[in-house]
Q: What sequence folds into this?
């Protein structure tokens, strides 16, 4: 197999995911662009290739078992292994005025939909890719989380954490908890898994509100994806260091 490292980034056709793919590509990784929409996926691949990145498309709907299995089969045919998995695909779910998800009136179907993508989708894709990751000499998994996942910050009345989001924020707390469970299971192996907070980034996900660029938002995930052996695992990071649980 080639010595070129192979990465898969889910939700990589735009925003933070695209910039994570671009950043890893600039470091010499061959990058699988995971995305549901064929047109957007192919456009992202062509844009990355034009920038000198060795990119290939990976059809992937993280909410479907068969899609995750087929994505793993494609990567096996393309590369034979996987060195980096970045679980970036995520949704906020339907919100009310002011981007609020009021827990007292929340549609339970919204909660189910958000958890299906943000948590179950990560488990689904991670487990589908694990056989390929285990073939790597230094496998890395990064779960893109959010500062709103921090229960410490959410519970502090003096910390500005944004609007009440009773579906999205708990889904990211759930994702963080799952990340820790994977880290415990991987103890004693060479697999490092961490959660990354990109900060408030101006993308279509946020209605293009936020002080950070997608490139800035991608930086922590790229750093965690390229950790040296013996690096941290089972932790939650942002640009300035560890985020409190």
A:
């Amino acid at each position: 197999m080639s010595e070129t490292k192979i990465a898969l980034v889910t939700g990589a056709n735009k925003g933070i995911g695209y910039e994570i793919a671009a950043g890893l590509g600039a470091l010499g990784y061959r990058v699988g662009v995971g995305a549901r929409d064929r047109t957007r996926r192919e456009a992202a691949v062509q844009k990355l290739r034009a920038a000198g990145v060795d990119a290939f498309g990976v059809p992937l709907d993280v909410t479907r078992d068969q899609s995750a299995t087929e994505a793993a089969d494609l990567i096996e045919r393309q590369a034979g292994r996987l060195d980096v998995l970045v679980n970036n695909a995520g949704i906020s779910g339907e919100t009310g005025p002011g981007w609020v998800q009021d827990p007292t009136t929340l549609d339970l179907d919204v909660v189910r939909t958000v958890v299906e993508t943000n948590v179950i989708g990560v488990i689904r894709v991670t487990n589908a890719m694990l056989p390929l990751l285990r073939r790597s000499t230094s496998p890395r998994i990064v779960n893109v989380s959010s500062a709103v996942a921090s229960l410490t910050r959410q519970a502090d009345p003096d910390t500005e954490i944004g609007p009440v989001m009773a579906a999205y924020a708990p889904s990211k707390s759930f994702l963080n908890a799952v990340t820790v469970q994977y880290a415990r299971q991987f103890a004693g192996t060479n697999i490092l898994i961490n959660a990354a907070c990109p900060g408030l980034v101006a993308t279509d996900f946020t209605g293009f509100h936020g002080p950070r660029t997608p490139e800035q938002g991608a930086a922590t995930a790229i750093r965690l994806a390229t950790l040296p052996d013996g690096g941290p695992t089972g932790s939650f990071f942002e640009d300035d260091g560890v985020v409190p649980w």
User: Anything to note?
Assistant: The longest helix spans residues 108-133. The chain has seven helices and eight strands.
